[in-house]
Write a structure and sequence with these properties.
By secondary structure, the chain is mainly alpha-helical. The chain is built from 5 helices and 2 strands, in the order αααββαα. It has a domain of 80 residues. The relative contact order is 0.12.
Length: 154
């Protein structure tokens, strides 16, 4: 009978070509989970806005979202950057800026903040649009209903 060693018990292995992608994907998952937890804890009395202020907030937040999405492509490329050379200084800088041992460096941390800001603003715009009575689902339902009425009238 062969006895198995327990020294690898509970140890999982993953093979990937790019460890940075693994860390980025894990960070995204944690950021989305943290954002969901904040959203669940935020159920309170809420805010009361007049229509003009709510419309302006949606417009402003949508513009900030557009800019952040542009910034996101930049921050994520910085987060995934490779070392310029194989010397100790370049490698050390890259580790401090991107990912090292599963821990985010400066650029990776910044990219995570941009992702969290995008999640927050998307939720803000969604809630404001809901409060204004215009959600994507309601608009599509209304379009379909009107299209049906127009076709029936012909």
């Amino acid at each position: 009978m062969t006895e198995t060693s327990a020294w690898l018990a509970g140890m999982n292995f993953w093979v990937t070509d790019d460890l940075v992608d693994v860390n980025v994907n894990r960070a995204r998952g944690r950021e989305s989970w943290a954002n969901a937890q904040v959203q669940q804890a935020a159920h309170g009395p809420g805010f009361q806005l007049d229509r003009d202020h709510a419309e302006k907030m949606v417009k402003d937040a949508t513009e900030v979202l557009r800019r952040l999405r542009n910034d996101q492509s930049i921050t994520e490329s910085l987060e995934r950057m490779k070392s310029a050379a194989d010397d100790p200084v370049s490698v050390g800088f890259t580790k401090a800026a991107t990912w090292s041992g599963g821990q985010p460096g400066a650029f990776a941390y910044g990219a995570g903040h941009v992702r969290l800001e995008i999640l927050y603003l998307e939720e803000l715009v969604r809630r404001l649009n809901t409060a204004l009575g215009r959600t994507a689902g309601n608009e599509q339902d209304a379009r379909n209903a009107l299209q049906g009425v127009e076709e029936g009238a012909n």
